[in-house]
């Protein structure tokens, strides 16, 4: 098995923001596939995230199958009573022990305990297991990121077979004081780069400034303030989504704009 055992902490509904984003942006790929297989990698001590992922993705792509993969055998044994049609559990790690090339691998709060220098190798290994881009398909998607214990704040990187594509920041807007509050949930590839001179630091600085400038919109609610701040960001940063996602408390930026220097 490739990888190490995580702390395994999890809570019901913790990954709802990531799940909803996946359903919105990757649902069409799942619907087009003859056998859309999804992997919930490192689901933890309880199988709630895998159960919820199946429910949310089947709303977008009814034929989706989810395989929960855990490197700790006791966690796999504990999860198996929750197996059902479309949901199974397997013992394994970054090698992804299934015969198919999955259309999605979700790895939430898995790389937090690893060293920054190990991330690129893990990404490369996981991306190599994704379904390839063929014809009109862009191939599988790896979504790797970190959130707080109850899922109010979440940042993730989306990668295709070719490598990283985007970074998404998602939050419960009512709990947000400023956008840079999300810095503590940056994925391992970026969290140590939130320092002057690095692009992610400049992005969060500019986001805070746009948020401050949008303060008059707070009288219409935090959502309107967020939308205005993100709209201002689009003049300087390659934001890839639009108001429909911004209304959810999200913003997605091209990876190249935030990638670590050096």
TrEMBL record:
Reading the lineage from the top rank, the first entry is Bacteria
User: By its UniProt entry, which InterPro entries does this protein fall under?
Assistant: SAM-dependent_MTases_sf (IPR029063)
The name under which this protein is listed is: Methylase
Protein source organism: Streptomyces glaucus
């Amino acid at each position: 098995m490739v990888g190490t055992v995580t702390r395994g902490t999890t809570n019901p509904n913790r990954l709802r923001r990531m799940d909803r984003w996946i359903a919105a942006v990757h649902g069409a790929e799942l619907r087009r596939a003859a056998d859309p297989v999804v992997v919930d990698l490192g689901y933890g001590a309880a199988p709630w995230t895998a159960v919820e992922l199946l429910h949310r993705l089947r709303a977008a792509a009814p034929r989706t199958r989810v395989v929960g993969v855990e490197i700790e055998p006791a966690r796999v044994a504990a999860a198996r009573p929750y197996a059902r049609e479309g949901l199974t559990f397997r013992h394994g790690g970054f090698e992804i022990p299934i015969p198919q090339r999955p259309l999605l691998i979700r790895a939430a709060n898995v790389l937090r305990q690893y060293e920054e220098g190990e991330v690129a190798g893990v990404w490369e290994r996981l991306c190599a297991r994704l379904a390839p881009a063929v014809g009109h398909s862009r191939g599988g998607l790896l979504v790797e990121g970190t959130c707080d214990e109850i899922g109010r704040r979440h940042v993730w990187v989306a990668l295709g077979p070719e490598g990283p594509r985007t970074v998404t920041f998602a939050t419960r807007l009512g709990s947000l004081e400023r956008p840079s509050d999300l810095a503590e949930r940056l994925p391992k590839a970026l969290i140590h780069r939130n320092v002057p001179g690095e692009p992610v630091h400049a992005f969060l600085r500019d986001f805070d400034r746009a948020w401050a400038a949008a303060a008059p919109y707070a009288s219409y609610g935090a959502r309107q303030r967020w939308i205005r701040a993100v709209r201002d960001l689009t003049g300087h940063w390659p934001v890839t989504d639009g108001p429909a996602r911004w209304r959810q408390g999200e913003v997605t930026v091209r990876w190249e704009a935030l990638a670590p220097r050096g």
